[in-house]
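Thread: "does anyone have the structure for this chain?"

Original post by V.I.:
We have the sequence but no experimental structure in hand. Need at least a predicted one for the grant figures.
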Amino acid sequence: MRWMHTLAVGAVLSVTMALPAAAAVDVSGYKFEDTNKVAGKDLKLNGAGMRTKFVIKVYAAGLYLPEKSKALAEILKQDGPRRITLQMARDVSSEDFGKAFMDGLNDNVDKAEKQKIVAQIGKFGEMFAGVDGLKKGDVLHIDWIPGSGTVCELNGKKLIENVPDINFYNALLRIWLGDKPVDRSLKPALLGDVR
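Reply from O.Q.:
Generated one for you, tokens below.
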């Protein structure tokens, strides 16, 4: 009988070891998987954290990259797709979200660089005008897909046509990772630099 027990334990262990490790990072109840597939490529969760305004939780954010990095310059140079995922922790009007987007760009992108991407900024702004706000529980993916451009999906529905300039996507990343990030505690969390 003992050999049957040993055999059963061995079988359970071998099945368990064959299963993929499905771990997730929990940010105040919002889960971010360790990997995400974007444009057929597996991306790694670089970091995740909560965006707060005063003490109010606005959204949980996760940054997915081909290779983990704690340096913005390296992140901006990475080849392959990238993803920022926002999981809304409260309702935000499209006007407020659009204003926060523009404030984040203005704080982190100089005038000369902004001039180069003004058409893309306008296109992105139209997206906010076409959305009736973001609701608690909504999931917004902002992806960079080489050969296509910046793609935004809200709850799995594509919001805008692709915006093809990598400089525009890098400007978006600076909203969270630039010298004047939208949330000073969120930046190190996205960079995986939380102790």
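V.I.: this helps a lot. Residues 2-18 form the longest helix (17 residues).
O.Q.: and Helices lie at 2-18, 72-77, 94-108, 111-116, 118-129, 166-177, 186-190.
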